[in-house]
């Protein structure tokens, strides 16, 4: 059943209100983690441009937010990174790239742990909100680790590829977003990702089980 299947009903409104803050947090914290790790590794570009922030308005991308809300996979406005400031560019680019997904998985872990430690989390709207937080963050984290440009997984792949394969990678980079959108709207990507997301989320959601 799609997100808009009961559009306009009280149930839809409740689901929307519980999902929206989870989406804003997932996207904002994802980009903040990129910028913060880059800052720690010597690149202050994100800080200079005001992107080292948890304010959703600093990271908001309309299409990416709608995608995350509707299909569970989305993106925010990328944090600017300048690898010239890194001491070890190949290694540091990979570290910065996985930092966003790591932040999302950390959020999901905290949600699961909080549910286990605070019994009241399991009840009513708070429990539903925590489940939304957990699933949305896992979905965003897994999605961004896919090695298709411009997703974070592609940056990790790029630093691992031998020079002989970089030409093919640059070709893929030109059409990466088109490929991603086609895979999403043909439901190929959701069908491939859903088992992974559900497995990880259910593992972390065990404390939330009623």
Overview of this structure, please?
The protein contains eight helices and no strands. Helix 1 (10-40) packs across helix 4 (89-117), helix 1 (10-40) crosses helix 5 and helix 4 runs antiparallel to helix 5 (124-144). The radius of gyration is 18 Å and the shape is globular. It has helices spanning 10-40, 45-48, 62-71, 89-117, 124-144, 152-160, 166-185, 188-205. It has one domain (10-208). The chain has 210 residues and is an all-alpha fold. Mean pLDDT is 84; it is low at 1-5. 68% of the residues lie in helices and 0% in strands.
Strand content: under 5%
Roughly what is the average pLDDT, rounded to an integer? 84
Total count of helical runs of at least 4 residues: 8
Give the C-alpha Rg: 18 Å
- Low-pLDDT windows of residues: 1-5
Structure classification:
mainly alpha
Shape: globular
Gap from first CA to last CA: 22 Å
Q: What is the oligomeric state here? A: single chain
Helical percentage? 55-70%
Q: What count of domains describes the coordinates?
A: 1
